[in-house]
């Protein structure tokens, strides 16, 4: 039985992490599967993991999380925010701040070293990497007899620096898996003359017996990390516009992230505290329960590589509306199952939501369309493409 290790930065809440767990679970019936998580963020993994999937952690993640949070504030020149974060975490305890600073530097250095040592001392047959720096380590550390696979979930969004960084990171790998056709076409143009072969394999969805929504309420839902690229403040503005026509509009906003407090403050500033419910991270079963009681999924992301949560909404018969700036949304949403809004026009999105919620016939038509094509994202279909790479 071939041994496969999927290397992830962490196993917290998020689309990449869910994709990792889904793949590991499906592969575990035919292979010896391990997930190598660099950071351990939680005592329990947020998603259900098969008992025959082994998880190994390399280090604790608390320091890493703090470092990442501060780094974002420094990059965006939000020094007041940085000061507030430091005060909240340390309360002027200079000794502890200095200690954690040293540990954060050690972590940055160690994470590559620990992954490299694991690979060099491993007799695994296949390594699947989920981050650019891991791609590099796998490519430079694996033996010729071992297969190295990069797995890209983020859209470059025409950022040449990021695009080139990813291309350079996979040049010593055997395969580079892209989750959308757009990403495949972009990267394949550059990598077609290298030894790294690009492959398009979309993410899978695995939901047992989803309960179809009756679409008989004014409940909207968004499941998202609360970060800049998700356009959450635009989402709040849209709900404010909808409320002008539908007073009992409700948005269940599931997720957490660096902007949680900013989002909460903005919701209160807009006087939408009774309409927008910030629910934080919720386990999958809770998310599915909310989906089964929602009338529409709303996405306001600036960019999405795939948008697996859209497929989950479709599984429950819930249509979606999104800005067409999100590539992943354009790949999955069409006139049969949802609505795409051009130019990030918040007023147009609000008007479309209002029209949809008041039109029962439109709800039925779009809900029926959500079921078209879902089968091609089922595990039994997606896993065939992965197994092709392992031969």
What would you say this structure looks like, in words?
There is one protein chain. The protein has helices spanning 15-27, 62-75, 79-90, 94-120, 132-141, 160-169, 181-191, 232-243, 260-269, 284-291, 308-315, 327-332, 346-357, 360-369, 379-389, and strands at 3-8, 32-40, 54-60, 126-129, 147-152, 175-178, 197-200, 219-223, 250-254, 276-280, 296-299, 320-323, 338-341. With 391 residues, it is an alpha/beta fold. The chain has a seven-stranded parallel beta sheet with strand order 3-2-1-4-5-6-7, with helices on both faces. The protein has a six-stranded parallel beta sheet with strand order 10-9-8-11-12-13, with helices on both faces. The radius of gyration is 22 Å and the shape is globular.
Keywords:
391 residues, alpha/beta, Rossmann fold, 2 domains, 6-stranded parallel sheet, 15 helices, 13 strands
Number of helices: 15
Average pLDDT confidence is 90
What share of the residues does DSSP label as strand, in percent? 15-25%
Total beta-strand segments: 13
Total tally of structural domains = 2
Give the gist of this structure:
The chain is of the alpha/beta class and 391 residues long.
Protein topology:
Layout: E1 3-8, H1 15-27, E2 32-40, E3 54-60, H2 62-75, H3 79-90, H4 94-120, E4 126-129, H5 132-141, E5 147-152, H6 160-169, E6 175-178, H7 181-191, E7 197-200, E8 219-223, H8 232-243, E9 250-254, H9 260-269, E10 276-280, H10 284-291, E11 296-299, H11 308-315, E12 320-323, H12 327-332, E13 338-341, H13 346-357, H14 360-369, H15 379-389
Helix pairs in contact: 2-3, 4-5, 5-6, 8-13
């Amino acid at each position: 039985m071939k041994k496969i290790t999927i290397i992830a930065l962490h196993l917290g809440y998020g689309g990449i992490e869910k994709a990792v767990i889904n793949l590991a679970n499906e592969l575990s019936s035919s292979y010896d599967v391990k997930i190598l998580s660099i950071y351990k963020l939680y005592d329990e993994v947020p998603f259900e993991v098969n008992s025959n999937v082994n998880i190994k952690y390399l280090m604790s993640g608390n320091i890493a999380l703090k470092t990442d949070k501060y780094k974002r504030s420094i990059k965006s020149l939000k020094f007041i925010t940085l000061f507030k974060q430091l005060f909240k975490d340390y309360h002027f305890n200079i000794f502890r701040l200095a200690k954690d600073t040293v540990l954060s530097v050690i972590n940055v250095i160690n994470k590559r070293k620990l992954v490299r040592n694991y690979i060099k001392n491993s007799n695994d047959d296949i390594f699947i990497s989920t981050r650019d720096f891991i791609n590099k380590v796998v490519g430079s550390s694996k033996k010729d007899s071992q297969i190295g696979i990069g797995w890209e979930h983020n859209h470059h969004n025409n950022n040449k620096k990021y695009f080139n960084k990813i291309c350079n990171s996979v040049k010593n790998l055997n395969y580079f898996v892209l989750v959308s056709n757009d990403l495949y076409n972009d990267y394949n143009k550059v990598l077609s003359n290298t030894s790294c072969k690009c492959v398009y394999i979309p993410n899978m969805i695995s939901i047992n017996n989803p309960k179809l929504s009756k679409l008989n309420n004014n409940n909207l839902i968004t499941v998202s990390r609360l970060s800049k690229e998700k356009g959450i403040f635009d989402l709040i503005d849209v709900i404010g516009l909808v409320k002008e026509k539908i007073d009992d509009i409700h948005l269940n906003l599931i997720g957490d992230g660096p902007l949680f407090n900013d989002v909460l403050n903005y919701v209160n500033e807009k006087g939408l505290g009774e309409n927008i419910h910030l629910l934080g991270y919720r386990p999958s079963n809770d998310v599915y329960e909310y989906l089964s009681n929602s009338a529409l999924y709303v996405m306001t992301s600036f960019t999405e590589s795939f948008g697996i949560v859209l497929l989950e909404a479709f599984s429950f018969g819930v249509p979606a509306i999104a800005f067409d700036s999100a590539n992943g949304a354009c790949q999955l949403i069409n006139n049969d199952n949802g609505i795409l809004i051009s130019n990030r026009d918040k007023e147009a999105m609000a008007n479309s939501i209002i029209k949809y919620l008041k039109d029962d016939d439109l709800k039925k038509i779009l809900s029926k369309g959500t079921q078209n094509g879902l089968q091609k994202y089922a595990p039994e279909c997606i896993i065939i493409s992965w197994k092709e790479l392992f031969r």
